[in-house]
């Protein structure tokens, strides 16, 4: 009590000093609660606790809630969210009050801003750019670089704009001699110990310190002593460290703790010996670790695979999407000539914000290894011989005509685009075959309702869930960025998360209820203590792993899920909390295009198998006497079994349509030329149809997309998500009591190697090791 009282007394003393400066207006006698004093108290409370102040943004922007730190839920007031304090509503409370606006002046220009914004945000709203190193819109406020100093009227010295809340009537000046002198002094201090590494630094040309020292720095320095040096840290095969360049902005520390959920980095020492590193000598183990390269404003943390390979001004940038998982993260592919040099994240608030997984960022070296560059035919002695396209297509057509239609089958692989899947389905249907499916779906996928296989809540909206039950999914390894959204819900609104399936470290507090269908059955029958949580939840969510849909007793499992969804009120008028998490980039589009076994499909032995980049088949899955055609871009597992190999293009070399796990249509763009004699996948199938005598009715990409429009119109509405129907899935006649009691299997054995590209990547092999 004495300590608490002492702290309160210190706060009151600070308040007594600050209030006259921040609130020159005399208080009215009728003021029961001075809003300015309350604002200062709130500011002191957050600064004292090391927690950030509020952020402004769009209603669904993630940056607002992320900045709450450990303050709890941020109730929405229109587009503004506030960090919680004693004066703010509790978790889940609905605030009916209209958004309160205040007026401030920035460089003589008056502007109305929402109450609770910081000075830095108020300046940005006017269009005035404030320099900063430590401030990041998605991280908590540290306020330790002091580069964002501005002058505020009636304050004795410049204030750090990132940590100071804007107050009514505040007059902010950003371009005065005092501001320029203060920033010049801060820049001089930052450069005291910074080495002159610019000619050999990988950050050169993209460095915030370079840019800001040119604009705000002096033309000379007064420091003549010996610069200090810091030992480099070994963070693993992905992140290269040159810690002598570090300016202690702590962005990487805050990212690791708040976003990635691993406390691998921290600040050690004080004063001149302060440095950032690992507490003990260990590697950075997060699946999002590469993002510290992007948040680092200097060259202290750079990409190890990219080191000394290119300069930023030499590269051609292409906007595309990532296909290593079903999230569809937006990326920028930087290439030089025929080679992809690096992959960086691209901002998309609804999908990946500005982060990507390590697999998406670093697996690009697999694009130039084990590539298939020309058509090949396997001779009876097992030897592969390179042939012309005409000979290869004629051989495939002859083999297809030698078997009955019911003995044919086609499988689309994990990385297939919608255009090639549409062409494959049309070709095999014209040949009379209805046995075609997408890899990972099994042979009896349900495609009647889109809401039965999509993430209906939406990736961004998962942040609003206050309860989440994960069933048969290793969310952290299947979709790291969806897991990051759920972590945000746990941190900001204390959402409760429970899981049924293989034990997984989700990097946030969660309850592991069991490993299999026995626990699921108990919840469905109301015999499990967790059932009470559904009654208390306002916005419950259930996320089902797509691997569960290949379970031996899928119908009984889905019947149990239906009962849980109905009794837990997971689906409401304004909330659909039933979600299926797709595992592969091609799955959602494949189901929309109807890549499932038709009603007339036979179960006879397969004698002609067309694999469109499908590499997850084991030798036992392919009959010994089957004629196998493999069309793909890597000489991966299935290429060793193929009778004929047709070289296709990777996602970086073609314009392809993909649909992510929430049903959002996105497109890749060609960043580099094709390898060797390879061709676009749909063009290969179109040429094959003509050789086989069943010519497809389209010759151009637009003609093919017109066909896709007739089958699934949503695949042509790029970056759009159709609202799902209310029913999560069609009613089942199967009783949940018929479920076979067994454990749910692991769907991802090795996060770093899940497809042909990542298995060919040397960097991913190092991460695995």
TrEMBL record:
Limits of the 4Fe-4S His(Cys)3-ligated-type domain: 178-217
CDD domains: fer2 (cd00207), MopB_Res-Cmplx1_Nad11 (cd02773)
Highest taxon in the source lineage: Eukaryota
Sequence ranges assigned to domain 2Fe-2S ferredoxin-type in this UniProt record: 100-178
Residue span(s) of domain 4Fe-4S Mo/W bis-MGD-type: 315-371
Alphabetically ordered keywords of this record: 4Fe-4S, Iron, Iron-sulfur, Metal-binding, NAD, Translocase
Endpoints of the signal sequence: none
Cofactor list: [2Fe-2S] cluster; [4Fe-4S] cluster
NCBIfam families in the record: NuoG (TIGR01973)
Entry similarity comment: Belongs to the complex I 75 kDa subunit family.
Protein name: NADH dehydrogenase subunit 11
């Amino acid at each position: 009590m004495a300590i608490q009282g002492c702290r309160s007394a210190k706060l009151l003393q600070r308040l007594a000093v600050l209030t006259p400066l921040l609130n020159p207006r005399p208080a009215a006698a009728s003021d029961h609660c001075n809003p300015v004093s309350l604002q200062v108290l709130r500011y002191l409370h957050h600064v004292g606790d090391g927690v950030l102040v509020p952020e402004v943004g769009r209603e669904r922007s993630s940056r607002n809630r992320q900045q709450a730190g450990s303050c709890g839920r941020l109730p929405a007031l229109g587009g503004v969210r506030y960090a919680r304090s004693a004066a703010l509503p509790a978790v889940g409370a609905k605030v009916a009050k209209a958004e309160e606006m205040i007026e401030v002046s920035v460089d003589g220009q008056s502007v109305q801003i929402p109450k609770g914004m910081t000075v830095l945000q108020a300046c940005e709203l006017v269009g005035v750019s404030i320099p900063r190193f430590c401030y990041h819109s998605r991280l908590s406020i540290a306020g330790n670089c002091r580069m964002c100093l501005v002058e505020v009227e009636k304050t004795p010295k410049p204030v750090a704009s990132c940590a100071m809340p804007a107050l009514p009537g505040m007059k902010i000046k950003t371009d005065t001699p005092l501001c320029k002198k203060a920033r010049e002094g801060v820049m001089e201090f930052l450069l005291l110990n910074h080495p002159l590494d610019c000619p050999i630094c990988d950050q050169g040309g993209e460095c915030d310190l370079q840019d800001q020292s040119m604009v705000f720095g002096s033309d000379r320095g007064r420091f003549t002593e010996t610069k200090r040096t810091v030992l480099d840290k070994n963070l693993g095969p992905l992140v290269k460290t040159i810690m002598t360049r570090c300016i202690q902005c702590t962005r990487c520390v805050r990212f690791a703790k708040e976003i990635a959920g691993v406390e691998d980095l921290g600040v050690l020492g004080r004063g001149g010996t302060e440095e950032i590193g690992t507490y003990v000598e260990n590697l950075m183990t997060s699946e999002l670790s590469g993002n510290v390269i992007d948040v680092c404003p200097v060259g202290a943390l750079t990409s190890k695979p990219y080191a000394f390979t290119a300069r930023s001004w030499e590269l051609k940038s292409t906007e595309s999407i990532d296909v290593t998982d079903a999230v569809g993260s937006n990326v920028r592919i930087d290439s030089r000539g025929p080679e992809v040099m690096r992959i960086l994240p691209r901002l998309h608030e609804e999908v990946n914000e500005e982060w990507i997984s390590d697999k998406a960022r670093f697996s690009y070296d697999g694009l130039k290894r084990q590539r298939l560059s020309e058509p090949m035919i396997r001779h009876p002695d097992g030897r592969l011989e390179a042939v012309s396209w005409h000979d290869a297509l004629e051989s495939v057509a002859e083999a297809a005509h030698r078997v009955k239609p019911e003995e044919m089958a086609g499988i689309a692989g994990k990385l297939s685009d919608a255009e090639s899947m549409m062409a494959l389905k049309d070709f095999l249907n014209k040949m009379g075959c209805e046995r075609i499916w997408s890899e990972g779906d099994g042979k009896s996928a349900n495609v009647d309702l889109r809401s039965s296989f999509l993430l209906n809540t939406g990736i961004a909206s998962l942040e609003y869930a206050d309860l989440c039950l994960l069933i048969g999914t290793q969310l952290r390894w299947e979709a790291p960025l969806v897991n990051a959204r759920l972590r945000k819900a746990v941190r900001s609104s204390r959402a409760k998360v429970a899981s049924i399936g293989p034990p997984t470290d989700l990097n946030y507090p969660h309850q592991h209820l069991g490993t299999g269908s026995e626990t699921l059955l108990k919840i469905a029958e109301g015999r499990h203590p967790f059932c009470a949580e559904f009654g208390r939840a306002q916005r419950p969510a259930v996320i089902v792993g797509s691997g569960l849909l290949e379970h031996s007793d899928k119908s009984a499992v889905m019947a149990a899920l239906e009962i849980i969804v109905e009794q837990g009120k997971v689906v409401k008028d304004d909330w659909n909390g039933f979600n299926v998490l797709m595992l592969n980039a091609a799955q959602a589009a494949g189901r929309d295009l109807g890549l499932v076994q038709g009603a007339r499909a036979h179960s006879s032995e397969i004698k002609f198998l067309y694999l469109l980049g499908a590499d997850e088949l084991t030798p036992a899955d392919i009959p010994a006497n089957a004629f196998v055609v493999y069309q793909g871009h890597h000489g991966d597992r299935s290429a060793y079994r193929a009778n004929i190999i047709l070289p296709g293009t990777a996602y970086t070399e073609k314009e392809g349509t993909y649909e992510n796990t929430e049903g959002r249509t996105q497109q890749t763009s060609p960043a580099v030329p094709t390898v060797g004699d390879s061709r676009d996948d749909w063009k290969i199938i179109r040429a094959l149809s003509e050789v086989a005598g069943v010519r497809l009715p389209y010759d151009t990409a637009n003609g093919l997309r017109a066909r896709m429009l007739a089958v699934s119109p949503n695949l042509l509405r790029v970056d759009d998500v159709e609202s799902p129907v209310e029913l999560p899935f069609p009613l089942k006649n199967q009783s949940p009591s018929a479920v076979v009691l067994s454990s749910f299997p692991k769907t991802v054995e090795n996060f770093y190697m899940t497809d042909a590209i990542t298995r060919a990547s040397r960097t991913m092999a190092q991460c695995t090791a």
